[in-house]
Specification:
With 88 residues, the protein is an alpha/beta fold. The protein has one domain: Rossmann fold (3-Layer(aba) Sandwich), CATH 3.40.50.2020. It comes from mine drainage metagenome. InterPro entries: PRTase-like, PRTase_dom.
């Protein structure tokens, strides 16, 4: 499960619950930035957690990104299609 940031972790916790309900045997969470208290809660729910930044002073996810514009669904689908056809 990947997220650019988790202020409260609500979206990630919902995704973790959904993945477990669908039978996932292991949940790995990767998040760009999250406050320490959210990280501790995520560590208890996920099997593995990777966080790029865990700042003590946290107000909003967007403050840690130079550009924090929403990505349209069509752009995500385009990138996934391109990744699937690009040789590694």
């Amino acid at each position: 499960v990947v997220d650019d940031g988790a202020a409260t972790g609500g979206t990630l916790f919902a995704a973790i619950r959904a993945a477990r309900a669908q039978g996932a045997s292991r949940i790995v969470v990767a998040v760009g930035v999250a406050p320490p208290d959210t990280c501790r809660r995520l560590e208890r729910e996920a099997d593995e957690l990777h966080v790029l930044r865990e700042p003590a002073s946290f107000h909003a996810v967007g403050e840690f990104y130079k550009s924090f514009e929403p990505v349209e669904d069509e752009k995500v689908l385009e990138l996934l299609r391109r990744a699937a056809t690009t040789p590694s």
